[in-house]
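Suppose a classmate hands you a notebook page containing two proteins, each written out with its sequence and a corresponding row of C-alpha cells. How would you begin to make sense of it? This section walks through that situation. The first entry is reproduced here exactly as it would appear on such a page.
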Amino acid sequence: DQDLYCVKWISWKGERTPVVTQSENGPCPLLAIINILLLQWKASAIWGGPGGVKLPPQKEVITAEELMAHLGNCILATQPQDTSEGLQLNFQQNISDTMTVLPKLSTGLDVNVRFTGVSDFEYTPECIVFDLLNIPLYHGWLVDPQSPEQVQAVGKLSYNQLVEKIITCKQASDSSLVSEGNAPVPSPVPGGTAGPPQPCHLRAVPAGLVAEQFLESTASQLTFHGLCELTARAREGELGVFFRNNHFSTMIKHKGHLYLLVTDQGFLQEDGVVWESLHSVDGDSCFCDTEFHLSHALGKEGATAAPQDHRLQQRQMDQDYMVALSLQQGQDPPSVLSDLELARQLQHEEYQQHRPHPQPAPPQLLPAQAGGRLAGERRQRQKPDLDCTLL
C-alpha cells in the first residue's frame, strides 16, 4: 500500500534509531522532515513523552496518518514560551497555514528556487513547515558568477519567473526586449584599411536564449558552483533538507563532506547502506554505512563476491605500484597483467591452497606472464621447519 512505509532501524550515535523508507515517488517531503526529527531525536519527546505515542522498538511499518499525527504534534510543540499577544497571534496564524499545507507533504511540495543562493527560495506557504521546525531547506542550482552573461540574464529571478521570461522573449517582436539585459557585442567592420573611423555595428545576444541555455546546461539542477556554496554554507553536523529535481532528501554535513540519507526501500535490509555521498554534479556517488565508512558489498551476492574482488583489486594496485616504482628508478616496467589474467592467477592460488597435502613446487610462470613477475611473488618462501604457508 502506498500509504504504508517500512521502517529501517540503524545504529545512530550509539542508539537504535528508526528511519522511514519509501517505495515510490510522492511522499519525499514528509519523509525528509520526519527522518530529520528522528535523527535529531526531536521526535522522542513526542513519541516517548507524556501524552505522546511511543514508537515500539519492533516497529516495522508505519502509516501516513501516523506520520502526519507525529509531525503535527511536533509543530504544536514549537509554541513560543512568550505569552505576549502579538507572538501568540502570529503563532496561531502560522499553525493555521501549516495545517493547510500538511496534506501536501505526502504528495509533493511546490517550491520555487532562486539561482542566487543555496537557501534562496520564493516564499510560499509550503515553506512555513520548515521555518516552524527550524529545518534548513537547501538547493544547489546556482548561476556561476564567472559567467557574466548568465548572471545578467538570470538575475534574481525565480525558476517560474525565468521560464516566463524565456517564453516572453521568444514571442516578443521588439528586439530591445529580446536583447534586454545583455551587453552588445561589436561585430567586425568590413574592410580593415586605415581611414576615417567607421561606425561600430552592434549585435546583442538574446537574453531569453542565454537563460534557456542556462536551464538546458544545468538540467540536473546542481551546478559546480552550487555544490561548492552548499558545502561551505551547511554547518558541520547539521541536518537539513536538500531539494533537487522535485525530490526532497535528508542531508547532513560530516567532516566537511555532504551526504544524503538513503530512503529507498530496496536497501531496507542493507545495514551497510545508510548514506550516499554528494560530491559530484554528474551523479557519481558512493554508499556509506551509519559511520560514513565506504560500503563495499551490497546484498548476499555482493558480500560473497567481495573477498575475491578485493584481492583482485589489491593485486591490481600492487601492479600499478610496481610499474610506477620502476619508472621512477629508470628501469623497464614489469609486464602488467590484465584483470582476466589476475583472476586466473588468484583462482590458481585458491586451488593450490585447498588441495589436500600440497607438495612444494618451484613457482611457475603463467603463459601470459612471459618475462613478467612470478605467480607467487607475494608468497614468502617455505621453510622446512614450518607447517604453514604465509600469504
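The notebook's second entry, a different protein, reads as follows.
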Amino acid sequence: PPVLSDLGYVPPDGGWGWAVVFGASISIGFAFTFPKAFTIYFKEIQAFFNISYSQIAWTTSIMCATTYGGGPISSILVNRYGSRPVVMFGGLLCGVGMISAAFCTSILQLYICVGFITGFGLALNLQPSVIIIGKYFLKRRPIANGLAMAGSPVMLCTLAPLNQFLFDNFGWRGSFLILGAILLNCCVAGALFRPIGPGTAPVKTQVTEEGKDALKGKITEDGPMENKTEEEGEKDCFEKVNQYLDFSLFKHRGFLIYLIGNVLMFLGFFAPIVFLAPYAKHTGIDEYSAAFLLSILAIVDMVARPTTGIVANSRWVRPRIQYFFSFAIAFNGACHLLCPLASSYTGLIVYSSFFGLAFGMVCAMLFETLMDLVGAARFTSAVGLVTIAECCTILLGPPIGGILIDTFGDYKYMFIKCGAVMVLAGTFLFIMNYYNYRMLAKEEKERKAKEEDPKSVRTENEGKKNWNKDSIQDGPELEPLKEKREGLKKEMNGT
C-alpha cells in the first residue's frame, strides 16, 4: 500500500529529525547495552557481599524485566506529556539509581537501586526514543530506525572497555558514581526531542468500541493533553486507562500476528549471545579469543543495522517489509542451527559474523515493522503493549538454555533449541502476514465495490438526509413547532 501519514501532518523526513535520531541512538544504546555491560562488576560484588552467582545475576534480570515491563507506563506518560520530558525524567532516574547503588550495603538495596530504579529509567528512555522517530520520519523512516538502533552495538563497544577501565582504577563503588553521571547524558538526548505536530494542536485519535457511539478515549501524540471534556469524571477506570493506552489494538489483526510472532521469537533471541563466549571456552578456546567473538559480532551488527535500514527503505523492499522481517528472523534461526557444526575457532568466527548480520537485521526492523502495521498514531500504545508481553519470554529464554546445558552437558542443544524456535517464528510471521495482506486486499475490494454500487450509495445518502432532517426537526429552537405538529396529528387521527 502507498505510504501515508495518519498523524494529521506530513513528517519533515529530515532537518531537525536527524538530531532526534542522534539523541534516540544514545537513549536506545543505553537501554539495550547497559544491562549487558553491567556484568563486568559481578565477580567483585559477589565477593564483597558474599553471595552466590545466581543472586547477583538477579540484578540484571530485574533490570531487564523492569525495562520491558515498564513499557505500558512509558507509553501512557508519552501520550500524556510527550517524549521530551519522559526521556529527561528517565535519564534522571538512571543517574539517581546508579549513584545510590554506590552506597548500597546489601544485595537487596542493589536490587532496588540498580534493578528497579535504573531499570525503570531505561524503560522511560527506550519507548519514547523509538516513538519520536515515527513523528519526524515517514518516507525515510526505515533508515532513521536503522541508524537509531545502531546506537546499541556502538554503545556496547564503548561501554564494555570503559567499565573495565573504571573498575580497574576506581573499584565498583567509584565506577557506579561515574556511570551515574554518564547516564545523565540521557537528559541531554531527551532535550533534542523537540515536539512536533500539526501547528500547536495535539493529534487525537478516536477509539470506538462495538455497540457504542460514545467517544471512548483520546490519544495525544505530542505535548500535554488539553481541553478535557466534562464527561471525563463520569468515565470508569478502564476508560481512563484506555484514554492513554489503546487496548482496541487487540482487535487489530496485524498487531496480534506481530505480537505472537515476536513473543515466540524472543525465546531464542538473546540466549545465543549470553552463551557464545562460554561455548567457545567449552571447546578449548582461551578466554581472550572467546571474548573477541563478541567484538566481531558487535562490529558486524554495527554495520548491519543502518545497512538494513537503507535496504528496507528501497522501493522494492518497503512494500514487503513484513516478509523481509520474517526472512531475517528465519535467517537468524538458521545460523543457530548450523552453529554446532563450527568446531574450530575459524568456524566460530564465521558463525559470529553471520550471527551479527542476522541479529542486526532483526533489530533494525523490530519497531519499523510494528509501525508499518499499526501506523505512527497508534504506535505509542502498541510498543508499550508489545514490550510488556515480550518481558516474560526475554526472561525465560536464557534460563531455559541454561537448563538444557546442565541437563545434556553440551551447548549444541541450546543452539538447536534457539534456532528451531526462531525458524518457527519466522515461518509463522511469513505465512500469517501473507494471510493478513490477502484479507486486507479482499476487504478493500469489497469496500470499493460497495462504494461503486449506486443502490448502496443512494440508500446511504437517503439515510443521511433522513438523519439530518430528524436532527434539524428535533432541535431545541424548533420545539414549539414540533409540539404544534404533534397536536395536529392527534386531531387528524381523532377525525
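A careful reader of the second entry would note: DSSP finds 19 helices and two strands in the chain.
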